[in-house]
Design brief:
about 180 residues, alpha+beta, L,D-transpeptidase catalytic domain-like, five-stranded mixed beta sheet, four-stranded mixed beta sheet, 2 helices
C-alpha cells in the first residue's frame, strides 16, 4: 500500500511541476522582451512632437500608434490612447524632480497604495522605469494635493495626477501597457 501512495504523490508532483513549467513558459512568451529594461529607440517619436496650439489636449503627432500612455515631459500632460489612436482621456500632471528620458517603456509594476518618496500617501501607482535609482511612475496623492510643486532637493519620480485621473490611469495602464515619453 505504501508503494501505491508514494507513486501517486510522485505522479502528482510531476504533474504540478509540468504545469508550473508550462505557465512560466507562457508568461515569458507573452511579456515584451524589453519589459523592465531602459528606454528603447522610438523611430517615429521626435524629441519634440508638434502640438496643436489651439487644443492642448490633442494627441501630439509622432507619439506612436496603438494602445499606449503618452507622457509629455515638456507639457506636463498625459494621454490615454486606445487602439485606433482614439484618446480616451487627456489630463495635466505635476512631475517629480526626476524626469524620464524620451523613449518607449512598458508598465512594470503597480501598487494600489504606497507612500511617495516625498512622504505623501499615494494611490494607484503605475511604474514604468527608473532613473539613477529613482522609480518613475504615475500616482495620485490620497489627500488630493496634486498642485504642490515637488521639492527640488528631494529626488522624486512620482508624476502626480488628480485622484480622478489617477483612477482612470489605474484602470487603463495595466502591466505590460506601453508608455511613450516625449519631450
Amino acid at each position: 500500500m505504501a508503494g501505491t501512495s508514494s507513486g501517486i504523490v510522485a505522479g502528482l508532483t510531476a504533474a504540478a511541476l509540468g504545469t508550473v513549467g508550462f505557465l512560466a513558459y507562457r508568461a515569458q512568451a507573452t511579456v515584451p522582451a524589453s519589459l523592465g529594461a531602459g528606454p528603447t529607440a522610438h523611430a517615429t517619436a521626435p524629441s519634440k512632437a508638434p502640438r496643436d496650439q489651439h487644443n492642448p489636449a490633442a494627441l501630439p503627432s509622432g507619439s506612436g500608434t496603438g494602445e499606449r500612455v503618452v507622457y509629455s515631459v515638456d507639457d506636463d500632460r498625459v494621454w490615454l490612447v486606445a487602439p485606433g489612436n482614439r484618446v480616451q482621456r487627456s489630463f495635466p500632471v505635476r512631475p517629480g524632480s526626476v524626469d524620464p528620458p524620451a523613449g518607449t517603456y512598458w508598465v512594470t509594476s503597480r501598487s494600489n497604495a504606497a507612500t511617495g518618496t516625498d512622504g505623501v500617501p499615494i494611490e494607484h501607482v503605475v511604474r514604468f522605469t527608473s532613473v539613477d535609482g529613482v522609480a518613475i511612475g504615475f500616482s495620485a496623492a490620497v489627500n488630493g494635493g496634486s498642485d504642490t510643486a515637488a521639492d527640488p532637493s528631494v529626488k522624486t519620480g512620482g508624476i502626480r495626477e488628480s485622484r480622478e485621473d489617477g483612477d482612470a490611469m489605474w484602470k487603463f495602464a495595466t502591466i505590460g501597457v506601453r508608455v511613450v515619453v516625449i519631450r
